[in-house]
Write a structure and sequence with these properties.
This protein is mostly beta strands and about 325 residues long. The protein has 2 domains: about 150 residues, no CATH class; about 170 residues, Beta-galactosidase, Chain A, domain 5, CATH 2.70.98. It is about 10% helix and about 50% strand. The chain contains 4 helices and 23 strands. The strands form 4 sheets. The chain has an 8-stranded antiparallel beta sheet with strand order 11-12-13-14-23-20-19-17, with helices on one face. A 6-stranded mixed beta sheet has the order 1-10-3-4-8-7. Strands 15, 16, 18, 21 and 22 form a 5-stranded antiparallel beta sheet that branches. The radius of gyration is 21 Å and the shape is globular. It starts with a strand and ends with a helix.
């Protein structure tokens, strides 16, 4: 079964296909995509599990150190390009963008080696709807039974950072930016930390300075790659496998992640009621919030959340700490 997740995209559209497998032993893998646009060029960083990629593209005999993995990736450049040619297509308003492989490297995620593929796509324009066709590790490749692609489309650019206040008891930082795709969409995020609070407050105001109404998808994402990764949305059972699941939170209004590592840390975002309705979208190794904003010309909307990194004390309920902080 192939599953798709969209991270904070304004007009990002993903197309995919797949057939569920009935194998008793399931080989699952997760891919990570980070997409940015710079004028007519789209930069696409694709991170794939090395062992699965090695089965899909002949990377030679198995190796057990990163230096030799990097050598294998570099030598396989033409084969990687050929493999991705029809499996990863970027288009702008229906016109295909010209792909290129700019570089390769090795990284680690959740203790596994990952191949980092730096791709560039030259597009015929710089504005419009960006579409991604993703069919990496599809069923016909017979290298993975279940492949999930997590996509982060980075669509905002900061152009000013100010330290508004910096005292012994309080710090305030303000970041101002614009949407890369909708220049009329302005964003201002203010981060506030105080000595007495166990969280940082982040408040983002979206303002539509254009002459027409603008529908915007907005939200945040948490990506935990540690041991025993699990996610939760307030009011729902903890997710340790399966998904992604779409869940509307209860009045506690949080999304969170934790693991089974010795640090006993729980990570969470707790949203204010004034931020409006949202949906949590999660599987075990990621969770995100999705807000549908309809901004009239000249209109604005503010999303405020507490950013929490707290000890769960090794408790069986890793997310009880978020319920406690949501009640404060």
């Amino acid at each position: 079964m192939r599953r798709w997740a969209i991270f904070s995209g304004l007009v990002l559209v993903l197309f995919g296909c797949g057939v569920a497998t009935a194998d008793a032993h399931v080989i699952a893998s997760t891919g990570y995509s980070t997409v940015t646009q710079d004028g007519q060029r789209v930069n696409y960083l694709l991170s794939l599990e090395y062992a699965v990629l090695a089965r899909a593209v002949d990377l030679g005999a198995p190796v057990d150190d990163d230096a030799r993995r990097e050598e294998a990736l570099e030598a396989a450049g033409p084969r990687l390009t050929e493999y991705l040619d029809e499996r990863l297509v970027v288009s702008l308003d229906g016109a295909a963008c010209e792909p290129g492989l700019a570089g390769t490297s090795i990284a680690s995620r959740a203790g596994k080696p990952y191949a980092e593929l730096a791709l560039t796509f030259s597009c015929p324009g710089s504005t419009g709807s960006l579409h991604l066709l993703y069919k990496v590790f599809q069923d016909a490749d017979a290298v993975a039974d279940d492949h999930t692609n997590l996509v982060a489309q980075l669509q905002t650019r900061s152009n000013d950072v100010q330290v508004v206040e910096n005292t012994g008891s309080k710090a305030v930082v303000r970041v101002t930016g614009t949407s890369a795709e909708h220049p009329g969409l302005k964003l201002v995020t203010t981060y506030t930390a105080t000595a007495d609070d166990q969280f940082i407050t982040a408040s983002t105001t979206f303002t539509n300075d254009s002459a027409a109404a603008l529908p915007v998808w907005a939200g945040d994402a948490l990506d935990h790659d540690g041991a025993g990764s699990r996610s939760a949305v307030s009011g729902f059972p903890v997710i340790t496998s399966g998904g992604p699941f779409s869940q509307v939170p209860n009045a506690k209004r949080w999304i969170g992640q934790a693991g089974t590592g010795p640090d006993n840390q729980t990570y969470g975002l707790i949203y204010s009621t004034d931020s409006g309705a949202f949906t949590g979208y999660s599987q075990s190794n990621f969770t995100m919030s999705k807000f549908k904003l309809d901004l009239p010309a000249g209109g604005s909307h503010t999303i405020t959340r507490k950013i929490v990194v707290a000890s769960n004390g090794g408790a069986a309920d890793k997310f009880a700490v978020l319920n406690q902080m949501a009640a404060q």
